TrEMBL record:
Name of the protein this chain belongs to: Eukaryotic translation initiation factor 3 subunit G
Top-level taxon: Eukaryota
Lineage: Eukaryota, Fungi, Dikarya, Ascomycota, Saccharomycotina
Keywords for the protein's UniProt record, in alphabetical order: Cytoplasm, Initiation factor, Protein biosynthesis, RNA-binding
Native source species: Cyberlindnera fabianii
Pfam families: eIF3g (PF12353), RRM_1 (PF00076)
Disulfide bond is among the record's keywords: no
Every RRM domain range: 140-219
Keyword Zinc-finger set for record: no
InterPro entries documented for this protein: eIF3_g (IPR017334), eIF3g_N (IPR024675), eIF3G_RRM (IPR034240), Nucleotide-bd_a/b_plait_sf (IPR012677), RBD_domain_sf (IPR035979), RRM_dom (IPR000504), SLIRP/GR-RBP-like (IPR052462)
Transmembrane segments: none
Amino acid sequence: MTTDPSCLLINTFGVLTYHHSRVAQWADAEVDQSAPQITTNPDGSKTVITYRINDDGKKVKVTQKIKEVVVRETVNKSVAARKKWAKFGAEKNAAPGPDFRTTQIGDPVFLRLGTSWKALEKAEEDKAEEDKAKERDDSSTLKIMQLNEIVTEDMIRDELLSGFGYIVRCNILRNRETGRSRGMAFVQFASETAAQSAMDHLNGRGYHNLILHIEWSKPRK
């Protein structure tokens, strides 16, 4: 019989006792995991050190820095009462509230009730597009409105604006849910002169049964 010397112990009575080293490591890891080391930092935050076994069977050290922030909120009385319920099972005798070492809190989701939510969503999308435009150099960008729903970016590039110079970008605003055009596009030309020429020639003209309205994406000073 072959015996691994690292797993063989001899007691005082000369009896051979076998001890599996991997079991000892696993047990040590369990002790380490159940007893995290918590240190309070000068800034009020806490450093939590724990150990776990990775997929390769090796014990690794995990360091987390936690800062507690007090947030006051107004909730329904029944909700406040539920928060005071005693925990049970593995969390029995634990402190109130979620344990941030094992629980991740998601972003709040707000419910909007009413019939005007589509109008609000459209206003938010328009504002988001305007905010993006403010971050770019849009001195040569036009906002084309009252476009027919059948019009695509390629039609704008190759059909409507093909004779006014190079187009840097062309984006049609679309509904998030349906993907249908909202009848508005932002077109950036290579030069402000080309953009001015396109606006002078096409503003107020008909295109696919609708009258185009074209203006600068940013108000001129």
